[in-house]
Every structure is written in structure tokens, then in C-alpha cells.
Amino acid sequence: MLNAAVLMLIAPLVWAAPAAGPDGAAAIPARLDSMEAAVLAGDGDAYMANIASGDAEFTTEQRHWADDLKLHKPAAFDLEFAGASGPGDGAEVDRTEGVLTMAWTMEGAEPRKVEYPAAFVKQGDSWLYAGEVWTVVEGEGVRALCANGLEENGGEVVEVFPEVRAHDEEGFELKVDRVQTVKLYSSMPHLQASIYLSYVDGLGGWNEPGEAIKILAGGRMGKNGYRTVLAHEFGHVCTFEMGPKASGMPWWALEGAAELAAEKFSRGWDGVDAYVRMLAKSERLGEWEKLSDFRSTPISDYGLVYPQGHHMLSYISEQWGRTARNAWLRAMAQGKSIDEATRETLGLGFADLDAKWRESLGATKEKPTPAGE
């Protein structure tokens, strides 16, 4: 059960869903039509005209969602909003909540559908989409936004997050001076749909610059399970904090840094080391260039991105130390190419770094302490 302190924090933030009033009753269906038309046209800007302002993280998440429409336009897309209820039936009511059903089909794929509590708000003369309705659990430097039934999970998240934050900030040698939002989803389809309509890969967490951390919660994760996924995703937050070009660095480097951040909690180094050495012995290591772009990396190579990235980040930490490793990441986050960053911070070209790393895989040695810190 959630403890009393957490329950007190939740209680003021749960309210009955107000009705839209006469103007909203007519305006919201028209808003749904506008959203549908924009999505089917692949017009991200037109879609964003339907989104409420005031929540910077939600706006960023919706912007990224809309940008994907330029690359992956659905063949069918339908929205329904039903079940709005609660006190208030006058024209002054400026918020309504109900169940939003989103159904869509990507070209050549099976139909998909999700439904979740959602809100529309009146801003000026317009009713606009304000996203999911959450139960909020507050903690030290963190707020968990919980889908229905995940309040206890949210309590576990806010309990373990301060430890995770301290660990990652020490490892990346920086401070993230703001409250961290973590969104907890109860189903994989809902989490996937919150990223892009086209997203189909399985995942346990997600983070992009300016977004909340998103995690799949529930089940038997337990506190250490949350520590592991939060350390990985907050590792991304720390990497993005290093510079405005951070999301443009190689995908394997981003994931390698996040996996390294989570290593203390996952205790997975021995398996990673054994796996990467097996790949090296069987000449099945991936080429870094093919693992560098999330959108163009072949699905068959996805299984190489995380362990190879983790292993290379550990190797850099072992050979040059934490501060040099972070300088290497920061240089790329500031816009340097991987070769420029490697020469500037490690004193050799990336091809030479790669060669030294591959050579090191021929020997068995214990994992050095600096790499896991």
C-alpha cells in the first residue's frame, strides 16, 4: 500500500471530470475531426494547432509525435471521445474529461487501437486536446504521472528516484536542476502510441529531449526494477543536458551511456562482457556506422546497439577515466562529429579507438570499477 504521506499528496490532485458545457459539446467533435484530418494528411503543423498550450513537456511530446507523420502517414485514423461526466453544465466550464479511443492502421500493417482517459480544455474560444488524465504522486525532485491503477507503482518510483538521480548525476558529473516528470503507462500499446503512431518495437522506457521519462509500469518490477529503468532513462536526461545536439550523436553512444548509467542496478555487466566477446570471437560485431541512426539501423542489428555501446563506453571509462568519457559525450552533444570528439578528448581518431577496443576483446579481464560509476 502507498504510505499516508503519498496518499495525502495524491488526494488533492484527483477530481471529478467536469462536463464541457454547451459550447464544448459541439466543439470537441469538431476538434476530433480536425485532428483526424491533419493526421491523415501527414500534416504535423496542422495537428499541433489542435494541442493545448501550457505544459511544455506535453507540447514537446506531441511535436515529436506529429513530426513522425511526415515519415509515416497512417492509412486510417479515427478518434472517439465519450463518457465525459461530472459537475458543471454551464458555458463557463473550461475542462472536460472522458475516454479517448484512438484507432489507426499503418500502411501494410494490422489495425491498432488504444483507449485512455483524456482531457480537452478551453483556451480562448477554442477547445483543445490536453492529453491523458493522470493521477499525480509527488516526491523529492520528481513527480509521477500515473495511469489508472498505478498509484502504488508511482509511490515506488518517487521513493527510489532520489537515489537514481544522485547516482546518475555523479556519473555524468552534472546537475539536472528541475523536477523530473515520470509518466507511468499500464500497457505497451498505450506507451508505444504515445511515442509515434508508427512505433511498434517493444520497450520498457523512453526519453527524448524536453520530454518526460516514460516507463511501462506494473507487474512484478519492484523497486530495483524501477531503479534500473529509471537509471537508464535518467541517463538519457543527463546526456541531453550536455548540449543541444545530444540527440544527434550516434544511437549506440546514447544507449551505451544510458546502459552504463543503469549498470549498478541491473548488475548486467558480466553478461554484456561475455556476449560482446562472443560476438568478437565469432566475427559478428556490428559496424558502428550501421548502429548510429535509430531510424535507419536495420532491425536485425537492434540487438547489437545496447551491448556494443555499453561495452565501448565502459572501455573508454577504463582507459581514459570518467571525466574524459563525459568530455567525449559533451563534445558530441555540442555538435562535434564522433571523430572530432574522439581526437579532441581522447587524443586519437575514432578508427584507432575502434581498433584498440576490438583488440581488447581478445583478452579476458575483470570489469574495472570506474566504468560502472
What does this protein look like?
With 373 residues, the chain is an alpha+beta fold. The chain starts with a helix and ends in a 13-residue tail after the last helix. Helix 5 packs across helix 7 (222-241), helix 7 (222-241) runs antiparallel to helix 8 and helix 10 (302-320) packs across helix 11 (322-333). The protein is built from 13 helices and 9 strands. The longest helix has 22 residues, at 151-172.
Distance between the termini: 33 Å
Instruction: Describe the oligomeric state of these chains in a short phrase.
Output: single chain
Pattern of helices and strands: HHHHEEEEEEHEHEEHHHHHHH
- How does the overall form come out from the CA principal axes? globular
- Rg over CA atoms: 23 Å
Number of helices, counting only DSSP H or I runs of 4 residues or more: 13
Beta content: 15-25%
Let me know the average pLDDT.
90
Number of strands: 9
Short description:
With 373 residues, this protein is α+β, with helices and mostly antiparallel strands. The chain has helices at 4-10, 21-41, 44-48, 56-67, 151-172, 188-195, 222-241, 251-266, 269-281, 302-320, 322-333, 338-346, 350-360, and strands at residues 76-82, 95-105, 112-123, 126-132, 135-139, 142-146, 180-185, 205-206, 213-216. Helix content is 47%, strand content 16%.
How would you summarize the topology of this molecule?
Blueprint lengths: L3 H7 L10 H21 L2 H5 L7 H12 L8 E7 L12 E11 L6 E12 L2 E7 L2 E5 L2 E5 L4 H22 L7 E6 L2 H8 L9 E2 L6 E4 L5 H20 L9 H16 L2 H13 L20 H19 L1 H12 L4 H9 L3 H11 L13
Parallel strand pairs: 6-7, 7-9
Antiparallel strand pairs: 1-2, 2-3, 3-4, 5-6, 8-9
